Structures are given as C-alpha cells and as structure tokens.
C-alpha cells in the first residue's frame, strides 16, 4: 500500500514538473471522450466495486427495472452495469429502435449487452449488409440473440458463406430478415451438410443461391431427420431424383412440409379419393404444393361440387385430379364460367362432363379466349360441335400461333382431317404429314396430360423431342407450371 502511494506521488511530480511529459497525457484524455461515429454513453468502466457495493447496485437496478415493468429474474446470473444511469440508457436505446417493454421481457438478457461494445457495432453491421435502419428493431425483436454476437467472429463469416452460395449481395438483408437465426448457425454444421446433400441428389450448385433467397429455412434443416426422409419417400412414390431435384430448385419450400402430418397424410388422402398409385409421381411433379395443402377438406369440397354441378362422378373426378391436380385449389366460380360457356353453346351437360374429364384444363381457360377459338371454329372452319366434344383440347391451343396457320395450310393443300390430326403434333410432324401422299388411319384419340407429352395407342409419342426419357417428361411437367 505504501509503495503504491509512493508510485502515485512520483508520477504526479513527474507530470507536473515536466511539461513535455504532460502534453501527450492531456491530449489522450481530451481525445478519448470524442467518438465521431456515435455519442458515447456514460459508463462506469474502471470503477472497482466491492462485493457489497455490487449487491447494492444490483438491488437498485432491479428496483428500477421493476418500476418500468421489466421482470429482472432472468438477469440474476448476468453481469449488470454499476449504475442505474447506464441501465436506463440501454433501455432507452432499445426503445428508440422500436422495442417495447413486452419485447424486452420476452428476452431480458439483451439488457446485459453494452450499448457501445455490443449494440452499436452489431446494428451498424446489419445496416451495412442491407437491412434498412427502419427494420433493425423488427430484426432485434425476431432474433435478440444477435446483440450478443461478435461481428468479426460470428456475423461476417455467415454473410461470406451466403455470398459463397451465390446469394446476391442486394438479397443478403432480405434473406436475413426472413430467417435471422442463420446468423447463429455454425458454418461447418447444418448449413454446409444440407447444401452438400441437396447437391448430391442432383440440385445444381448454381441454383442454391436463388433457393436460399426464396426459402432460406432449408439451411437450418438437418439432413438425417428432415430432408433425407422427405427425399427418400418421394423417390419411393416414383419421382426420379433428377425430377425431384428440379422440383426442389423451383419450389424449395416443399422441404418445409411436415413429413408425417402433412406429406404422408396427403399422399394417403389422394389414394383414398381414387388417385392411382402409379399417377402419384405425375400429380406431385405437376403441383408440388398438393402435398402441403389441407387436402382432405379441399378434395371433399371439389368432389362434391363436380358431382353436383358438373355431374362428374368420384371416379371421373379422380381422373381430373390426375391430369390437372391444380383443380383442388381452383375457385369454383372460375370453373363455372367455362362450363356455362360450353353449355351456352348448346353442348349437352353430359357431353360437357366428358370434355372436362378428358381435358380438365378447359375449366381454367379464360372465357374470352374460348369465345375467340369457338367463333373461328364455327365461322371459318364450319365444323360440327360434336368434334369439340371428341377433341376438347382444341381450346387449349393458341388460335393465332397454331390453329389459324395450320388450318390455312390444310386449306391450301385441300386436305380434310380431324382436329387432333392437325393440332395434336409438333410442327415438324405436321409438315411431314402434309408432305405425305396419304392421311394416316384414324385411331383412338391421344391422352392429354398437362405439361407432358401426348401418348398415342401403341406407345407412340407425339412430342417435339421424341427421344425424351420418362425423367425428362416429368421434368417438363414440373418446369411448365
């Protein structure tokens, strides 16, 4: 103690007796209180408190927090500032961000963060990477743990990892606002393994970035317990991995559907409504959302509607769902517009039902387009309505780019044929037919599957690419949606 006093006196004598020694010391004292970036809060750094003083300060601060409505119970093991003024500054700083007392009570540990050491550096970095200042309060409410993080050690590496996945720089803030918990993940843990697994099943690495932007939550999913069970199950239903990979690239949110309570339940529901097991893969590829909908209620409602209004029985309804699964979510008023149009053209209700079962896309077509196609059919082509009943797909073809040009080519050649003969083929095949000296024998009409190829009896395939594999066929159905 005596030696400490002697050293203090000696330092004081040296400073006062030697002006050259005093000047830099005074400059340090005067400059240390100036921070150009923000106003430094009043703190008590350097004040050494004894055990008794610390207990007294904690009691005073706890009483202050109680008076403003904050419950301090969770702060018992947290180091608190030594004065009420510092704690008041922390509370007021958070309130200026937009947090309420209720928000603070949901995570009171944020009061253990220093304004200078924690809050300002973290919030400044978040604003720098694209989170608007007006959204910072919302961000802290959703993920208050971020205030404890180190910018250099924890936050910056995660942002660098996202950029490495090809997430656009301007999208980083958007991604983190959607899923702020990403900032708490270890790079070598869940995020890396989920990306590696998806790439291993065929997801293109260059599509990972857009997937993260669309649905960042898959980065936090465990492969073994979440992603892999879903992939394995869908593959077991007949979805090739190549098709499944394309589906996940475009609609990554399917990985977020609950496996037991949603996916498996909806597949069982489809089977119970008459959808054939061999058609499940096609149904899911065309409309992935179907495995995440409240399906039983939707199917029940639509099945009843089809039976009541369109006179289509449950088996016919199942065939409609197989060909166009989006029908489960289609508004019934929209369906009736197309149906009423066909009925208004004098087509019997029973024939309209046959047309819808054969080509469900009819009920989703804009009535105005159907009117134009029908007018051309009657006025220019002069054909009987019966042909439309046999080939309702006529309405699904573009009037300007397919129907008119091909019909005029037929007229110039003096060829008379059925609707499906000149419409239900690729441009190349149509030209080959016109160059031939005969018209092929009429066979049973082709089956129409939304987004896919037209399969003729005898396993012949009418397509722009006649050598496509089954996988590529399903892929075409997926990306066409």
Fold and architecture overview:
It is built from 25 helices and two strands. Mean pLDDT is 84; it is low at 1-48, 442-468 and 473-481. By secondary structure, it is mainly α. It has helices at 2-17, 19-31, 51-67, 84-97, 101-106, 115-128, 136-142, 151-164, 172-178, 187-200, 208-214, 223-236, 241-250, 259-272, 280-286, 295-309, 314-323, 332-344, 349-358, 367-381, 385-390, 399-413, 419-423, 427-435, 470-479, and strands at residues 454-456, 460-462. The protein starts with a helix and ends with a helix. A two-stranded antiparallel ribbon has the order 1-2.
- What does the main sheet amount to? 2 strands, antiparallel
Taking all residues together, what is the mean pLDDT? 84
Distance between the termini: 83 Å
| Regions with little confidence, pLDDT below 50 for 5+ residues | 1-48, 442-468, 473-481
Which descriptor suits the 3D outline? elongated
Strand element count: 2
Q: What is the structural class? A: mainly alpha
What secondary-structure arrangement, pairings included, does this model have?
Blueprint: H1 2-17, H2 19-31, H3 51-67, H4 84-97, H5 101-106, H6 115-128, H7 136-142, H8 151-164, H9 172-178, H10 187-200, H11 208-214, H12 223-236, H13 241-250, H14 259-272, H15 280-286, H16 295-309, H17 314-323, H18 332-344, H19 349-358, H20 367-381, H21 385-390, H22 399-413, H23 419-423, H24 427-435, E1 454-456, E2 460-462, H25 470-479
Antiparallel strand pairs: 1-2
Task: Describe this protein with a few key phrases.
481 residues, mainly alpha, two-stranded antiparallel ribbon, 2 strands, elongated, disordered C terminus
